[in-house]
């Protein structure tokens, strides 16, 4: 991926109107090849090339470039996502930022590990109320009409909102730099790796109703560094009636 960063890449538009580049496809092909050789009985699901070995109990989930828009515009806020599902539940998650050299590794039941030359420690921070919270989301366009109204309720209760970030925002939450991320329309390759990383850093990540993220879910994702703050955010997102 690094050799393609800030190079003139042709970005095609997929059926869902999201961009894809040669870097996306080459990176996924390389990851599939390595995983297939190391774990030949496991399934592999990738954003660009679908599912192999659907019957497998263990399945690797790949997003070769989460944040292709950031990648093709030269912003290092994208990341490579890799997750392992066991019986449909994320047990291992990796967020890797190949340009900044940062990596988060989460394993179910274990403390998240972070390495990176920019510094930081994988530990979420306490945040006493929504009024003190720093909120992040990738883009307003990811919300449907109802979701936008619900997000605005949460946004209006928080100290500030930051747009942009893709998976990198979740890494920052795991480092205690921000407090909340609320997004819609995420696919399983967008969120599976995030679950062990956030939980292992002391945070909570669920859907907007506060339920565990599962295969086939709608893709409404809420992550909070402070468990008490998560409850307040769920309550705010649930109060969708009327004007924000």
TrEMBL record:
Membrane-crossing residue ranges in chain numbering: none
Domain of life: Bacteria
InterPro entries attached to this UniProt entry: Inositol_monoP_metal-BS, Inositol_monoP_superfamily, Inositol_monophosphatase-like
Pfam families in the record: Inositol_P
GO biological process, one term: L-histidine biosynthetic process
Keyword match Hydrolase: yes
Entry binding sites for Mg(2+): 47, 63, 65-66, 190
Cofactor: Mg(2+)
Family: Belongs to the inositol monophosphatase superfamily.
Protein name: Histidinol phosphate phosphatase
Provenance organism: Endobacter medicaginis
């Amino acid at each position: 991926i690094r050799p393609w960063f800030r190079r003139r890449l042709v970005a095609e538009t997929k059926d869902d109107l999201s961009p894809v580049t040669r870097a996306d496809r080459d990176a996924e092909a390389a990851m599939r090849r390595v995983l297939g050789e190391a774990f030949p009985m496991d399934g592999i699901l990738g954003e660009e090339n679908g599912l192999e070995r659907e019957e497998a109990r263990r399945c690797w989930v790949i997003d070769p470039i989460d944040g292709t828009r950031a990648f093709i515009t030269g912003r290092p806020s994208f990341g490579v996502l890799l997750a392992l599902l066991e019986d449909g539940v994320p047990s291992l998650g990796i967020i890797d930022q190949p340009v900044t050299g940062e990596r988060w590794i989460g394993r179910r039941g274990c403390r998240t590990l972070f390495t990176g030359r920019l510094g930081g420690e994988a530990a979420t921070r306490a945040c006493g109320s929504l009024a003190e919270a720093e909120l992040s989301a990738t883009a307003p366009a990811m919300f449907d009409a109802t979701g936008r109204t619900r997000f605005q309720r949460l946004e209006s209760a928080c100290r500030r909102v930051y747009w942009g970030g893709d998976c990198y925002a979740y890494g920052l939450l795991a480092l205690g730099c921000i407090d909340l991320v609320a997004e819609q329309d995420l696919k399983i390759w967008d969120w599976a790796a995030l679950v062990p990383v956030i939980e292992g850093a002391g945070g909570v990540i669920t859907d907007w109703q506060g339920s565990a993220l599962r295969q086939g879910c709608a893709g409404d994702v809420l992550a909070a560094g402070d468990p008490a703050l998560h409850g307040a955010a769920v309550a705010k997102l649930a109060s969708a009636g009327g004007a924000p």
